Fold this sequence. Notes:
Largest sheet: 8 strands, mixed
CATH architecture of the largest domain: 3-Layer(aba) Sandwich
CATH topology of the largest domain: Rossmann fold
Radius of gyration: 18 Å
Strand content: 15-25%
Oligomer: single chain
Amino acid sequence: MPIRLIAVDLDGTLLSTSVEISAANREALRAAAERGIEIAIVTGRRFHSARTLLTPLGFPLTLISSNGARISSLDGEACHRNFLPAATARKVLESTRDFRPYAVVIYDVPGPGQVMMQSDGALDGPLGWYRKNAPEAVLEVSDLEAATLPESGDVIQVLFSGPPPKVEAAAPRLAASPLAPALSLTWTRYPARNMVLLDVMNRGCTKGEALRIWAARRGIAPAEVMAMGDNHNDREMLEFAGRPVVMGNAEPGVCCDGWATTLSNDEDGVAAAIRRYVLDAT
Length: 282
């Protein structure tokens, strides 16, 4: 069955290690779009962070951001949200107080307050990274739990990020807590950077579920979807797609038997897969 929708992860997939979209990847996506194939970028990044990277592509696409919490066009018009209720986010923070130096609360707002964390957070965690890379989005507070107020609206997610020994134990604690039925826990792992990300999302919120919702709205069957990814947060998306393609640089445990593989993100693996399974197959 011909591919009608291409779903592509960003970091480690479409983006090179220098955080760039190569000319080959850009032109392959453009060629597919010109044939009427829909393009969806499906990323763990925030909408505002991803949009900055994608706007220069210059062709229509759908942006599924924050691991499936938000589906929108690049101009910001959202057609689907699956956010974490503020009251649940507060309970998550309450039950993980000893992980607070590595915690972030992310809101769907522009500017400061999009990323909220404690001013005394650990510098080897998200505080150091966001101060350097996205200071315009950061709001630092003295007490993250107290600052997560219901009147501020639901949050996209609670994020724990840092060296594995500092973060990993938060997952089994939440999984064993009374909150577990209300949550989806999603891992992204970067061993070479000694860093992991644990996204605490609303129940049922994954890249795969968001892609399923979007494909259904567009009248596209799973067999008509090709998805490409490299990390553990891509698994549900790859499992949904009729043509799952795993990057050559994928983390161990991402690929399943029978799934296709392509070149790495630094070898234009996205372009190679599009040419093989889409452009040269029609």
